[in-house]
Design brief:
Layout lengths: L2 E9 L4 H16 L4 E8 L6 E8 L2 H8 L2 H10 L3 E10 L10
Antiparallel strand pairs: 1-3, 1-4, 2-3
GO molecular function, one term: monooxygenase activity
Keywords: Monooxygenase, Oxidoreductase
Pfam family, one: ABM
């Protein structure tokens, strides 16, 4: 199964649209990684200025390899001006079930 990374980002008020454009402009840095299975950007409906980024990886070791790379540091620098606070949670996907609408 996949290794999943969940980022929670609190943004500088009023910079949400800029952040979304910057995220989209740099998204291929992540999705272009050989071990990346995909990523998603979501905006909280409950908390103003809070976004979640989910990315799935083939395994933890390959994610950690990317996390320590110069590419990752450069990518983070581009998003950092929009961020006030954030956190990262990692997990292993145990089961994946497709819904009826799929």
């Amino acid at each position: 199964m996949a290794f999943r990374v969940l980022l929670r980002m609190e943004l500088v008020p009023g910079r949400e649209a800029e952040f979304e454009r910057a995220w989209l402009a740099g998204a291929d840095v992540i999705t272009g990684q050989p071990a990346n299975l995909g990523q998603w950007l979501s905006r909280s409906e409950d908390e103003q200025g809070v976004y979640y980024i989910v990315s799935d990886w083939t395994d933890e070791a390959r994610f950690r390899e990317y996390e320590l790379s110069d590419q990752h540091l450069e990518h983070r620098k581009k998003l950092h001006p929009y961020r006030v606070a954030g956190s990262m949670t990692t997990m292993t996907v145990l089961h994946s079930l497709a819904g009826a609408a799929r």
